[in-house]
TrEMBL record:
InterPro entries: Papain-like_cys_pep_sf, Peptidase_C19_UCH, Ub_carboxyl-term_hydrolase, USP, USP_CS, Znf_RING/FYVE/PHD, Znf_UBP. GO terms for cellular component: nucleus. It comes from Enhydra lutris kenyoni (northern sea otter). Belongs to the peptidase C19 family. Its EC number is 3.4.19.12. GO terms for molecular function: cysteine-type deubiquitinase activity; zinc ion binding. The keyword Ion transport does not apply. Signal peptide: none annotated. This is Ubiquitin carboxyl-terminal hydrolase.
Length: 476
């Protein structure tokens, strides 16, 4: 039976401790048993939907609206307190932000324009890679100069639109979120930026990185570059991204490396070519194959694997040159890697050697610090000495005589470091140089550092930028 008193819809309930029936949420109308909008009579304590046995009524307000005036006054007081507190916190934050972004340079005060990246739950692997890429000027500038991606049709066509979670799975754009993140990192308007929109897109298109467990920074970098490359090959606001790239003559003129289709800024900047040379030890047949690459993964030679620090006295220090030499030296393949010789018509013992046929504009070197032993993936914690300037790659080229000396020298732009004992644990940070100064990026914290600190780091990924012809001539 429908209760005749449902027109009363406001619950006015004093402190529940005064009533034996418990809290207001447990009260219900004694007539219709409804617990929606229960009313309590202040005279007899009966609970109903509106009319009570004592014929006394509880109403919303007096005839003069005094209760409403009290409500409005209390709301104004609450709003004023909230506004004042918000202004106070904002001022403190601005002062803190200003102080944290000031540093001493040659005795004068200068501002740090670098912005940190908030950790969204073990996302330091992503933050370290993003900060490194943001300091590769040619790569970063390309994305920052792109117009916003058009994600909607109809009424919003022709406007700049931005990704939000409500737009659905089919409208995510990795390029757009990557562009916005890069734009935010060097504006200097905030101490830390939250890359949650980018991370949401990563979850959507890279299932391997869903969840909040620690991930491998190198693996993430490869997935990121591969997916940026694939998306850049598609259309962009009705204009082919390949056409946009062709307009940038500085990138397209010397770019001959294509990976998975047409060239993009990813392959123009990071793309190089390896020559894989295999020789049959039985008949001497030689096989050559050219493989494009975006980075080189280098083993740390076994004789250095117990050398954990630069100052350790047991033997020579491992250098980046040792790792590069190990990568390019002639190697005899073992029994598990027998070469199928087309002349012998069967698998034979063979030798293998890598040559670099084309060097990239940005040389990304990955030191293989994690390896499987039995059931565990252990970390090689060896310190590897690396140069800040003048990494000479000429001796690793297939045809060094065809490359000028200025095109073989590289200077360090960024380095990713893994702190800890295993790939599934620990922490990632990055060092990068910007406008002649070195910074340490540790999630939301960005600090100024020096070259002596950088060279002591146990590098995991190194980003070297091709030196311009006018630079100095010091070499590794």
């Amino acid at each position: 039976m429908e209760c005749p008193h449902l027109s009363f819809s406001v619950c006015i309930a004093p402190d529940s401790a005064k009533f034996p029936n418990g809290s207001p949420s447990s009260w219900c109308c004694s007539v219709c048993r409804s617990n929606k909008s229960p009313w309590v009579c202040l005279t007899c304590s009966s609970v109903h939907c509106g009319s009570y046995r004592c014929d006394d009524f509880v109403v919303n307000d007096t005839k003069l609206g005094l209760v409403q005036k009290v409500r409005e006054h209390l709301q104004n007081l609450e709003n004023s307190a909230f506004t004042a507190d918000r202004h106070r916190k904002r001022k403190l934050l601005e002062n803190s932000s200003l102080n944290s972004k000031l540093l001493k340079v040659n005795g004068s005060t200068a501002a740090i324009c670098a912005t940190g990246l908030r950790n969204l739950g073990n996302t330091c692997f992503m933050n370290a890679i993003l900060q490194s890429l943001s300091n590769i000027e040619q790569f970063c500038c390309y994305f920052k100069e792109l117009p916003a991606v058009e994600l909607r049709n109809g009424k919003t066509a022709g406007r700049r639109t931005y990704h939000t979670r409500s737009q659905g799975d089919n409208n995510v754009s990795l390029v757009e979120e990557f562009r916005k993140t890069l734009c935010a990192l060097w504006q200097g308007s905030q101490t830390a930026f939250s890359p949650e929109s980018l991370f949401y897109v990563v979850w959507k298109i890279m299932p391997n990185f869903r969840g909040y467990q620690q991930q491998d920074a190198h693996e993430f970098m490869r997935y990121l570059l591969d997916h940026l490359h694939l998306e850049l090959q598609g259309g962009f606001n009705g204009v082919s991204r390949s056409a946009i790239l062709q307009e940038n003559s500085a990138l397209s003129a010397s770019n001959k490396c294509c990976i998975n289709g047409a060239s993009t800024v990813v392959t123009a900047i990071f793309g190089g070519i390896l020559q894989n040379e295999v020789n049959c030890l039985i008949c001497g047949t030689e096989s050559r194959k050219f493989d494009p690459f975006l980075d080189l993964s280098l083993d740390i030679p076994s004789q250095f694997r117990n050398k954990r620090s630069k100052n350790q006295e047991n033997g020579p220090v491992c250098s980046l040159r040792d790792c590069l030499r190990s990568f390019t030296d002639l190697e005899e393949l073992d029994e598990t890697e027998l070469y199928m010789c087309h002349k012998c018509k069967k698998k034979q013992k063979s030798t293998k050697k890598f040559w670099i046929q084309k060097l990239p504009k940005v040389l990304c070197l990955h030191l293989k610090r994690f390896h499987w032993t039995a059931y565990l993936r252990n970390k090689v914690d060896t310190y590897v000495e690396f140069p800040l300037r003048g990494l000479d790659m000429k001796c690793y080229l297939l045809e060094p005589e065809n490359s000028g000396p200025e095109h073989c020298l590289y200077d360090l732009a960024a380095v990713v470091v893994h702190h800890g004992s295993g790939v599934g644990s620990g922490h990632y940070t990055a060092y990068a140089t910007h406008e002649g100064r070195w910074f340490h990026f540790n999630d939301s914290t960005v600090t100024l550092t020096d070259e002596d600190t950088v060279v002591k780091a146990k590098a995991y990924i190194l980003f070297y930028v091709e030196r311009q012809a006018k630079a100095g001539s010091d070499k590794l």
